[in-house]
Amino acid sequence: MRSRIVSLGHYVPERVVTNGELGKRLEISDEAIVRRTGVRQRRYVNAGTSCADLAYEASRRALAKAGLAPKDIDLILLATLSPDHFFPGAGCFLQARLEIPGIPAIDIRNQCSGFLYGLSIADQYIRTETCRNVLVVGSEVHSTGLDFSPEAAGVTILFGDGAGAAILGPCGDSDPGLIASRIHADGRHARELMVEAPGTRYPVQIDHGMIDRKMHYPRMNGLAVFRSAVKNMVDVAESILKSEGLTAGDIALFIFHQANLRIIEAVAGRLGVEESRVYNNIERYGNTTAAAVPIAFSEAVEENKIRENDLVMLVSFGSGFTWAATLLRWKNAA
């Protein structure tokens, strides 16, 4: 028994925030944002819309494409770094909206690599015949947790909101499906990209002093992230290719984490992959962290960039540091 992706769905908020609009607040030009990141616009939620709300919309679309009802799902895996609340997990709020009480709902906290971690976990549940249909979602709301002061521009310009979902189901050993997954982490670099507070490391999880020091906003060592992202994304992709006796030329489409266009171009260049075999949507959505890969994957399928029996490789890198890759052979929905 193996697993395959039965369907995909994605959802992004209607509100479009252009570089021009954002730049006025952050005192940075559209040209500078595009040059540094490749982002031209991103989506922001309206007040009161949560991670689970976005996840629900993406899940609903994936279910419709698969011809399944929520009651057909055996397990929910929700990857996010921006849950509805500190606890309980956002997966439980998604489960409640889908009206499928009783099944397990697991939150995955591996940041930008969370969706690929989720695919790996779902694959194991299906291979062991513990579950038949698994819902894997990446969903993020960044806009309500960003610092919009000019000194934070280098981080804030990157991020947007959105959600992507996949439904995994069983397939025969010789059928198209998931072929290989690799998931990795190196916590020695955890402080290079993080939100420090709230946190149990402190005598009080959050206080006014932490807020005054802006410890509740994301901070990043951009150079360290860039170097590690490029190296580890290349290494994990090459590891799978080597183990499966393939070359980069055998892959019909690469979907890299949509963190920064400069990172994507560097990874593709080192792998020897031409632009036509790399799917990008970063200019429209920015970095949606755990949602970035499933949104891009869902769009690529809708745009017929992926055909029956194509080999597709998904590669991601995120805070932690974490990184992952998944190789699959695509099968169109029945």
Q: Mind explaining what this structure looks like?
A:
With 334 residues, this protein is α/β, with parallel strands linked by helices. It has two domains: 2-171, Peroxisomal Thiolase, Chain A, domain 1; 178-329, Thiolase/Chalcone synthase (Peroxisomal Thiolase, Chain A, domain 1, 3-Layer(aba) Sandwich). It is 34% helix and 23% strand. It has eleven helices and 13 strands. The strands form four sheets. Strands 1-7-6-4-5 form a five-stranded mixed β-sheet, sandwiched between helices. A four-stranded mixed β-sheet has the order 8-13-12-11, with helices on both faces. Helix 4 links the parallel strand 4 and strand 5 (105-108). Helix 8 (222-243) packs parallel to helix 9. It is globular. The two termini are 19 Å apart. The model has no long low-confidence stretch (mean pLDDT 97).
Could you provide a short overview of the structure?
With 334 residues, the chain is α/β, with parallel strands linked by helices.
